Amino acid sequence: MPSISDTLATPLSLYAIPAMWIISLYPAFARVSTFNEVFQLERNVNESLKWLPDDSSAESRSVRQPRVSYASVAQKKTIPPAVAARIQRLEGAHANGLENLPIFGLAVLAGNFAQMDSANLNIACGFYLLTRLAYNHFYARQYDEKSADIRSLTWVISLASPLYIFFKSASLLAQKYP
Any keyword Membrane (predicted)? Predict the structure, then answer.
């Protein structure tokens, strides 16, 4: 059985790019699930109160323009404000993950191009993925200023990994090509 040091010496860093993409998609799946639960509940209420018009909920959950659906969720009177806020936070976590994916992906590619030590690169990638999981958790569950500050701090800490990889790669390339 390979030891931890043997595993870390294996070039695994490229797997971190699709792993980050999946981590970025998780809030979107949670958002859709929460959104669908709300509209299932709304549909059940509307069926019990036949006199209520159903056209507004059909319009607000259009698959043709899903971003409009999520953006307008706070204006729906039938959605509890806490649930609407959670849906919007999940959308924010998803967007932030996709916004940060290119910088991380490019850093991993730079680290591999510069032939950075696999163990260091794997540890930096693992740290980044763990901090992004924590970021998603804090973003989805923030309810006050303190938890928002923790989320922001987690985001700043997560940036240390791609920056470390970029600077280490630049240093290695500067040594190889003076």
Answer: yes
Q: What is the pTM of this model?
A: 0.81
Helix (H, G, I), strand (E, B) or coil at 82: helix
Two tokens, residue 98? 């996709």
**CA 148 – CA 138 distance, rounded (Å):** 8
CATH number of the domain where residue 96 is located: 1.20.120.550
DSSP letter for each residue of 120-157: HHHHHHHHHHHHHHHHHHHHHH--SHHHHHHHHHHHHH
Instruction: Give the number of domains in the chain.
Output: 1
Residues whose CB is less than 8 angstroms from the CB of residue 148 and which lie 6 or more positions away in sequence, other chains included: 142
The residues near 108 (Cβ < 8 Å, ≥ 6 apart) are 13, 14, 16, 17, 121, 125, 165
